[in-house]
Amino acid sequence: MQSQDVAQRHAAASAGAPGPAVDVEQAEAALVEHYPRLVRLAYLVLPPGPGRGRRVLTAHALVQRALPRGRRPAPVVPAQSTGRVTDPGYALVRLEVVRSALEAGRPLRLTAWPTRAQLPPLLPQVWGLRLFPRSGGADELALDQRLAALSGPARATYALRGLEQLPDGDIRGILRAAGIEHPEGALAEANAVPAQYPLLDSPEFDPCFLQARPTDLLRRRRHTRAALAAAAALAVCGALVALPGGGWGADGAAAPVYAQNPAAQAALDPAQVTKVPAAAWRTAARTDFSVWPARGALTGDTALLRRALAVWARPGATVRVSATPGTQTGGPSGPPQLLYAGLVDSARVVLFYDGLRIARYAEPKDGTAGAALDFARVDGATGLEASALVLGRADGNVRYLTAPWVTKVAERDLMKPDAPATDVALTGGVTGPLASGALQQGACTSWDVLQLTYAQGVGLATDLGELVPARLTAGRPGKTGEDSGAVARDWAPYACSLAAERSAGVRGVNAWAFAEQPLPAGGGTGSWVCTRAETWRGDGTVALAQFRTPGSRYGAVAARGTDVTACGPRDPQVLAGVLWKSGGGQWYLLAAGGRDTTSIRATGGVTASAPGSLLVARAKQGAQATLKGTLAGGSEISGLR
Predict the structure, then answer these.
(1) What is the tens place of the pLDDT at every residue in 113-128?
(2) Bridge-partner residues for 448, per DSSP?
(3) In the chain, pLDDT over 70 holds for what percent of residues?
(4) What would the 3-class secondary structure string for 53-96 be?
């Protein structure tokens, strides 16, 4: 049966038959979910000539431009060769990535206009830094040199074999669809390189795991001086033109930019920094960052605090500044509160709190070159949300500073919910190194989280690459729980989906098992779970409906909604569907809603209806259906998208 399906796909591809139509939302969901994989594929196909830094930025630019502008037919090739349900959106985006990467490798000609892929990428851009993947070993270097000697189609063949595990027949279809007239030559050329496919998963070929170095500092300094001189001249000319007779100005009676006033001076004075007493939290009316005491061996280092405050107010050109989405990076409006100052691994670290934000300043312990300034929004944080902050990351591990009310810290693997948590050393509120799920490379086989014991109970939080770990909960929206054992069990099959929420300003993520559905043809019982990520800024929420078949270790994303109220406290309802293939080869549309759903109907590529919160209908591969549901009160609900 499997060989017959492959033969049918090859026949359809050679005949030029179009695949199922893919809309922009479906393609975007596939691009976001598989972004690291697509960027790695583009990086491998691109020629090595311009250098690794240019190659990294070009790979990201090509993948970000691979999103179609409207509904388009997907290529008749599988998304993967693993036997899982074909994802037409992923197949379409992957084909566009391969096509544009091959175009980018073609030389420019005087007789024809260059294509967009052949031009340098406008975005993304990183000013003042050179970014390139971490260097691998001798085997990775040798493989990179062998791939550099191949043509673009041959590199694409090798990458599709190794990364996508596609058979040669499907690779021929992709290359033809990408504009290669004779793909057989590319397949034969790729055979000359040994099949060292596991090396393709190494950091050597990962454009998403980068190291940074400065550009030419002297040349940049000269350019900066010239730009400043030009800007000053333009400002003087503008002032002479705009202020001829008494003048007008946007700032009104404000003092000049570089004027020193008492408020600005107080904010930069280390002697004015607030230091909360160690026992203040015991009698405070609330448990938040405002009652954290100042800790660390360097809280009395006036010179360090002065440097940290000055960089916060006026970060120099060499300071790396980062902030979670929706977080302002301006200086403090007054003297901030000191939370920590001390040595963490090989850096001096200072943590401040100004009532709305956490600011982290870090510098090497043997100098100030390479200082970093990070911001995170924490307004309204309390309880578990205000119980830990990231002090530093090194070698795939992370160290936390915990709240004074935390009595015990442990490390727990979400993907092993029945395994006991491992205790972590806690010294002066600082934890020992813990593995971080946000920093792991390669396949997702574990997801380690922080387990905190405090007066209100035991809760879980996970590192998502930001200063504040995200709180993990489970249960129906509005009635979620933080019991660590129950949360770990509910999250076990879906922990790897947390990787999609890295560096997005996430405040907390909840998992809600909203339905279980008997599968047709004796397929067992499938599970429906909705995971919703809430952000500190309010918008940018992401809800994922995930479906897990019996015996599967991981759940699969069936639907994705951004900036929606579904699956949240304001609207604790969700409706989602997925195409499922039985063991006998028959395709079905499966749809499920919460317990308040009284009926479901499907229109479009599948027409069916059913009472209650579950729907099962025969369908064709690639069918697109629109879902509508009716709730107990009579109101309607649409399918998550």
Answers:
(1) 566 666 666 656 666 6
(2) 413
(3) 83
(4) HHHHHHHHHHHHCCCCCCCEECCCCCCCCCCCCCCHHHHHHHHH
